[in-house]
Amino acid sequence: MTHLILNPDSTDRIELQKFLEARGVQTYTFSCPGRDTIAAINVDAAELHTRLFPGENYRLVQIETSYILASRKMQPESTVITTRFNKTIGGKDLAVIAGPCSIESESQILTAATVVKETGASCLRGGAYKPRSSPYAFQGTGEKGLRMLKEAGDKVQLPVVTELLDADDLPLLREYCDIIQIGARNCQNFALLKKVGKIKQPVLLKRGLSTTIEELLLAAEYILSGGNMQVILCERGIRTFEHETRNTLDISAIPLLKQKTHLPVIADPSHAAGNWRLIEPLSLAAVAAGADGIMIEMHPTPKTALCDGKQSLNPEKFRHVMENIRNLSKYCRGRK
Prior knowledge:
single chain, 336 residues, alpha/beta, Alpha-Beta Plaits, TIM Barrel, 2 domains, eight-stranded parallel β-barrel, four-stranded antiparallel β-sheet, 11 helices
């Protein structure tokens, strides 16, 4: 397949983009520091030449992988996603997304938000709709929880992240949250991925329990191909034969993804380990492996948590982990 990347300095850039779109070729814009990159897939190179567009206006690339827009060959520069309050994911600074597994009350989420803000984390997370293995387990607080999450985020000036389970809830989540999370169970829910591909809002895509790296990138391709270029990939542990941990955090996936794709890559050690004692070493390992961010569950009082208390850090332990993560990150990311 032949794909095209427009030269950002080309004088005919806009004309060439219009030429492609007039022929039914969709163009895609990648957000890069200092400039944007415009690309198109499956173009007719011969037709371009007949229109006498100079070769310096674009470059043609051949990509053999089944994922195209997610490929680093299509976009060599790393994508940086900027959200509300000017917080970035994928830039020079390590992003930390933290908060409780589930939003339980106004005081709980506000206390968590205050701690997250004080430690210098980038985003506040909290679940309003909970995908639970048992139908009898706590299912979340729904729209009420979304409202409490947004209010807490607004108060401490942090963007908020929450999970989308049902496409019907997408308008509601867009109203209340800044980053929409697609959880592991929906990683290959292609109908849902197409829906979030049509919005202009960052999407955090978690790797499925048995999803290969290529399948994760193809899931991201569903979102990208819809025109939403703001995708964050999350390694959150895969299901193996091991029972000592909830899942197995695939550290090797982080540098592999960083080589294969320009999209930001973060790690979720909380869901991988299922044990708060493992969060610090796994977080440090992910930072050393090149992760752009870490997602950590933190609860004001883990013992009373309605969901995943065993894998949640209390404020004191969270502050300690954040300090160590920050110190290692300064060295690792300063080395690049």
